Amino acid sequence: IESSTMLWEAFGDEMGRAVEIHHAIIRNHIDEYGAYEVKTVGDSFMIACGSLADATLLCLAIQTSLGECSEFPEGLRFQRRMRTASVTAGSLSKTPTIVPLDDGSFSGEFIHANSDSIGLHGRPSAPDALMREDSLGPLRVRIALHWCHDVTARMDRIHGRYDYYGHDVNVCARVEGQAQGCQIMVTADTMKAITQTDVYSLMIAPDTTAAVFLRDVTLKGVTDPVTLYVLAPTSQVTSGFIPSRLVL
Predict the structure, then answer these.
(1) What is the DSSP string of 156-175?
(2) Shortest CA distance to 210 belongs to which of 188, 178, 225?
(3) How far is residue 52's CA from residue 59's CA, in Å, rounded to a whole number?
(4) Strands 143-144 and 44-48
């Protein structure tokens, strides 16, 4: 949860209830998509999914439900409506560009959407710059989604649950560290894999918008720089976040 320390300090009693709602929403969607709750650390979840398609739909469902939920305490909802400051996301190496493709190849520039428009206005210097304020809830949650290859599952005998270890788990944690509230952050390799899932064109693409967020990012402990994409339910993005109809 973005700014969770500040929220706990300012709204201690209400944050307790808010986190209960946050956990209930996430666990409801974990059950819906047959995912596995590996563990929680504070207000953070580690979740394993049986397929990349399910993981993508799970993340989108969580962000949508958090934005639509009307049960959060009034104090939190009021402070979010009054919030005018935004957090700088960091610099981009250049303004994001869009390269429409018709040969099914991966551009590495900008991905999908549900409109024939092409373009991305301005630089996404903060999540609120590209997200519809009325579609977002008082808790802004960062999500990282990563397609894992180098990973090992081990039973934790103390807690009686499987935990996951390996390079890709570490990459996912580093990607989450680059995200801001309301964002679903993925690497270019994961984004390419998402577009190649069997259900992408039918279940993911029609309601999802995504764009390059940061290029050539160096993640701690990761040798090669990565390009990061931000995904969002199309219902939550503003007119400044213009999608492009691409097949990757």
Answers:
(1) ETTTTEEEEESHHHHHHHHH
(2) 188
(3) 11
(4) unpaired
DSSP string, 94-161: S-------SSS---SS----S-S-----S---SGGGTB-GGG--SS---EE----SS-EEEEETTTTE
> What digits encode the pLDDT tens for the residues 109-160?
333 333 322 223 233 334 445 677 667 788 999 999 999 999 999 999 988 9
CA atoms within 13 A on the CB side of 56: 30
**Closest to 142 in 3D by CA, of 170, 178, 168:** 178
Q: Which residues contact 223 (CB under 8 A, 6 or more apart)?
A: none
Tell me the whole-structure pTM to 2 decimals. Answer: 0.79
> Among 39, 37, 44, which Cα is nearest to 1's?
44
Collapsed DSSP state (helix, strand, coil) of residue 180: coil
DSSP state of 236: G
Beta carbons of 62 and 183 less than 8 angstroms apart: no
- State pLDDT tens for residues 74-120: 888 877 665 533 433 333 333 333 333 333 333 333 333 333 222 23
